[in-house]
Amino acid sequence: MIHPIDTPIEFEVSIGNYGNKLDTNVPAQSSTTPPSNPLFDGRQYHYLPWFEQKPCVVVDSQWEDCTFRITSMNILYSMADKLETGLVEVKKEMSVELYDIDAIKSQLGDVLDDFIGDVSQGLPQLPDKEVTKLDRLRRGVRVKELKELERAAIYLRNSPVKLEDMVDECEDYINSLRNLAIEPQQCIPDVIVWMLAGRKRVACIRIPAHKLFYADGKGRGQLCSKVQTLFLAPPTVEEDEDLEDLKDGAQVRMMLWLEMEKEKSHFAEEVKLIGGDFAVYAETYENEACLLGRWGTIGLTRPNWSDSRGKIKQSMDAFDPPPHGWSWDGPWFQQPELSTMFDMDESRDEWMEEIYENQARYPLSSWPDESKSYWTNVTGDAIKENDGKEEKEVTKDQLQCPEGWLWKSDWQVDIGRAVDDEGWEYAIEAGMGNWVPYERNGYLFRRRRWVRMRIRDKNAKVVQKKKQKREAALKEGWEYARLAHLTYHITRHPLDFARRRRYLRKLTGDPRRPAIFHFKGKERKKKKDDDDEEVGNQQVPRIFVTFSAPAHTYQLRAYIYQARDMYGGDKSGLSDPYCLVSFHTSSDRTRVISETVCPTWDQTILMKSIRIFGDTSKVVESPPPIIIEFMDKDTVGRDEFIGRTEVRPVIRLSLDTPGPRLDWFPIVRYNKYGGELLAAFELLLDEGNELPFTPPTASPPHTHYIVPSGIRPILQKNRVEILCWGVRDMKRFQLLPVMSPLVEFECGGVAVKSKPIKNTKSNPNFPDPVLSFDVLLPKEELYAPPLNIRVMDKRSFGRCPLVGTHVVKCMRSFIVEPKPSQSHKLAVAVAHKVATPTPSIYEGEVTVVVEDVKEALDSDPDSQKKVEFDWWSKYYYSIDDPRRTQQEYIDEGYDKMKIYPNDLEESFNKFEDLAQTFHLYRGKGSRDPEELAGESVGLLKGSLKVYPLPDDGSKEPPPVFSKTINTKPVECVVRLYVIRAVDLMAQDPDGKSDPYIKVKVGKGGKGKKIADKDGYIPSNLNPIFGKMFELKAHLPIVSVSIILSCVCHFCQEYNCCKSQH
C-alpha cells in the first residue's frame, strides 16, 4: 500500500550508521532493496510486485555484547504482554450487561495462575564478565520486585476480592513489570526502515532493537522472526495532525531478525521453514540513449555500464575476481527489473481504462466544440496506436480494447473528482499542471477524464498469445524511460529517450564473509546542493529469497455493515464517509453515505485472485492484516482522512471452518478516538474448492453486494418513543441566536421531526414533545445502530441550518418492557417520580434536605430565645454533634433529617427520572465519549423508550409517554436554606473575612438577586449562617440554577466563595 509516486521505490534498513547508503564512513552493505516501479492496484494505492522473488537485506554491525540485558528486558515484557492479553479477554467478557461473575472470576484466576508461574521462574543469571555494578544492582531490584509481585498475586488469587478490584490490581502488575523492564544501559540503537523515492527519503519507521533480538525461549523479542505489517510515516512530522497535508507513506509487510553473528544460521533455517531459498546476485546495467532516432552511448548522462542509480562505473569485467570466500555460479544473464515485467493491470480481472479530453483556446475566446478536442493520457502524451503501417493518434471512440480484455461498459465522464458539473478541470498551462475545478478568464486549457471498465478475457488462446508476446519482449531485456532517472517500463513509448538492460550473475560462498566489490576509478559526484553528493565506489550484490512452490490463491470477503461516532469532517459536524479497504496488493472502496457520522453501508467487498506465497499454515498463524481507511468525500479539494482501523480476517481453508461474525472494531484518527466499525472479514482458499454463495446485490439503482443473511444481524420490529422536552443554553450560530429550533431523530434509516419552538426566550420547550416511529432493529443489542439527534434552527427565507448533533451510541439503557396494566399510570406519574437515594454518612461538606418547610430557621443558634426545640436541635442531632444536641430532643423521640455528603444531583441520579440531558456538538471533531461535556454548544432535554412490537399480529402495547404532557413554563417558589460555609478565602490583612450571603436566580441582567449585607458575620472563615431565602422564578426559562456567593462585607469581592447548584 503505497501512495502515488512517479519515481522508483526502494527500502533501506539501518541500525546506527550501519546500512546508511549515504554514509561513506561505513562499509557498503546489502541494506537496500532493488529500485522498483510501483504498480497501480486499480483503485487507490500502488504496490511493488514482490511475488515469488522477494528482496532480502543484510546489515552487519558491531556493538557491545549486551545479550543478558536484552533477554531480561524481553522476559519482563513478555510477562506483561501475556498478562495484558488475558486481562483483555476478561474485560471483554465483563462488557456484557448480564455476565456470570463466578465464571469470569474463574477465568481471571487462570490468568493469575499463569502469571504466578511466569514470575516464579525469575530472571537468568548474569554472566561472569562484562557486567557493571549497575547491572548487579538492577537485577537485585528486579528479583525483589518479582518476588513481591508473586506474593501479591497469590494473595489476590486466594482472597475474596471484588472482580473490579482484581482487574485494577492486575493492571497495576502490568505497569510494574513495564517499569522494571526499562533498561538504562541499552547500547544497541533502534532499527530504522526507510522508504526512498529516487534520491529522497520520504517515510520511515523506528523499531526498538530489543523487539527484534533473537534468543531462545522467552528472551526472544516479540517481533523477531514474525511476518508483520509496518506503517511508514513521513520523517518530518512533528505532530500527528500534520499528516493531513502529507501524502507520502507506505504499508510494508516484512520479517525482521536481529541476532549475534555466531547464531546467523537460525535465520536461514527460519527462511527455509516458510518455503524460501537464498540467492545472491551481482548486478550491473547497460545504458543507452536515443539521439536523432538512434540508440547508442552518445548523449548518455551516466556510464554505459553502471549500477542502478548510474553513479558507479562497473562493467562486467570489473567484477572479476569475486570477493574472497565467494565464487561464480554460472555466466551473466539478462533479467529485467521485477516491476517492469508486469503491466499496470497485472493480476486484475477488472480494470478502469482512462483517457483525457483536452481543449485549448485563445485569450478572451470561447472553448471549441468537441470535434476539435485532442486526446492524451494523464501525463499529457498523445495516445497512439499502430495499425500495422504507421502509428497514429486516436480518440476515445477509436481506442481499441487491449489484447486479452473485453469492454464491460461505455465511456463515461468521471465527475467523482474535484471538477465542475461537466467534469472539466482548468489550468493556465497544460504542462504546468495545477488543475482547478473552476473556470477563469486567464485559464486557456481544460481537460476532463473519461473512464471505461474492461474485464479480462479468460479465453485460453488469448492468454497464451499475450504470454508469448511478453516473452518475446523480455528476450531483448530493454527497459525504457523518458529520462535516465525516471521510472522504467518494458514497453517503449514515443517520448522515451533512455533505456537500460539489467545483467545478473549468481554467487555462492560463505555467507559469513562480506561480499563487497571494489571498483577502480574516481567516484562520480554531483552538485553540492544534491542530497547524493558523496557516493562510494563499493558495490554489494543483491540478495533475494525465492519461493519455488507456487503461490496459493485466496479470496477476501469484507462485510462492511455500519459505523458509529465517526469524526465530523465538515463544518456542520457531519461527514460524507466512505471506506477504503486495502489487503495485500488489492484495494477497493465502499459507496459514499452523505451527511452522517453513523453511516450504514451494508456492503460486501470481494477481492479475488489474491496470491500469497508460503505455506497455508503460516497464513493461518499470522494472516495479513486488512487496513480500512475512512475518508470524508469533499466536492472541492482532496478527500479528508477521518480514521483508520486494522483487523485480521478469519482464515477458512474449507467450509468446515466456522465463518466470521460481525464485531465492533475501534477507529483511530491520529492516535485519538475516531469511532467504531461494525464489520466481519474472511479469507477463503480459492483453489478449486467449494466457496460460499456470492452475496446478493442491492436493489436498483445500486449495484453493490450487500451483507448476506448468514452474516447480517436478525432484525425485529421495534417502536421508539421520544420525549423531546426542550433545549437549553444553545450557543449562537453564524452570529445569530438559536430562536426557533426543531429536532430530528434518526435510527436505522427511519427519521422523525418535531415541531419547531416558536421562541426559546419565552418557552424553550417543544410544543408537542412526544414523538414515535417504528424501525427494524437487530435482536442482539451488540449490533443495534446508534440514534442520531440533529437540532436545526428554523430561520427566515426557508433556511434551516444544522446547529447541533448528538449520537446515542448505545440504546441499551432505554429499552423497556411496558406492562399493559401499568403503562397508563406510568405516563401520568413519570413527571412526579422521585428516585430513592441511598442513605449516606455525614462527611465534611453536606447538602441538607429539609423535610418540613414550615419550620423557620433561627438566624442565631446561640441566642437566648426561649424555644424548647428549634430547627437547630434537629440539625445537630442529625449530624451527631453531642456537644450541641439537646438531650430532651432525643428523649422525645424526634426523627433525624437526611443529610447527603454530596450534591443532590449525585444522590438523585442527576434528576433525570423524567428527562435525560444530551450534549449537542457542532463543527469538525470527534465524538469521544471521554471528552468533557464543556465543549458542547447546547443541551437537549428528553428521554427515549425502546420496546419490541409483537410480530404475531397480537395487540400492540399502549404508549409509554402520555401525549398530554404540559410543557409550558411554571412559576415556582425557590427556597434556599444556607446552613454554613467552610474554609472561605481570606480577604482581610488579618487573615479573616466578613462574609454575607448574596443569592441570584437566573443569569444576565434579568436575574433576581437578594443581598443580605446587614447579616454579615465579622472575622470568620467558617461562618454558620442558618438563614432561609425565598425567590420566585419561571421554570424552565431560568435555565441556570441558583448561584450562591459569599461576599466580603468591606471589600465587596466575590473571591471568598462561589458555588452553583
Describe, in plain words, how this protein is organized in 3D.
Helix content is 14%, strand content 30%. Helix 1 runs antiparallel to helix 2, helix 1 packs antiparallel against helix 4 and helix 2 runs antiparallel to helix 3. The C terminus is likely disordered. By secondary structure, the protein is α+β, with helices and mostly antiparallel strands. The chain contains eleven helices and 51 strands. The strands form 14 sheets. Strands 4, 9, 10, 11, 12, 13, 22, 23 and 26 form a nine-stranded antiparallel β-sheet that branches. Strands 14, 15, 18, 19, 20 and 21 form a six-stranded antiparallel β-sheet that branches. The two termini are 55 Å apart.
Helix-strand layout with pairing:
Layout: E1 9-15, E2 39-40, E3 46-47, E4 53-56, H1 67-94, H2 101-120, H3 133-158, H4 163-181, E5 191-197, E6 200-207, E7 227-232, E8 250-255, H5 265-273, E9 276-291, E10 294-296, E11 305-306, E12 326-328, E13 333-334, E14 350-360, E15 374-376, E16 384-386, E17 391-393, E18 405-407, E19 412-413, E20 424-427, E21 445-456, H6 460-476, E22 478-481, E23 498-509, E24 517-518, E25 538-539, E26 542-547, E27 552-564, E28 577-583, E29 586-589, E30 600-612, H7 616-621, E31 626-632, E32 640-647, E33 650-652, E34 663-669, E35 672-685, E36 715-728, E37 741-747, E38 750-753, E39 770-778, E40 787-793, E41 802-808, H8 823-829, E42 847-848, H9 871-878, H10 887-891, E43 899-900, H11 904-907, E44 916-920, E45 938-948, E46 970-980, E47 995-1001, E48 1008-1011, E49 1024-1035, E50 1043-1048, E51 1057-1060
Parallel strand pairs: 33-35
Antiparallel strand pairs: 1-5, 2-3, 4-26, 5-6, 7-8, 9-10, 9-11, 9-23, 9-26, 12-23, 13-23, 14-15, 14-21, 16-17, 18-21, 19-21, 20-21, 22-23, 24-25, 27-30, 27-35, 28-29, 28-31, 31-32, 34-35, 36-39, 36-45, 37-38, 37-40, 40-41, 42-43, 44-45, 46-49, 47-48, 47-50, 50-51
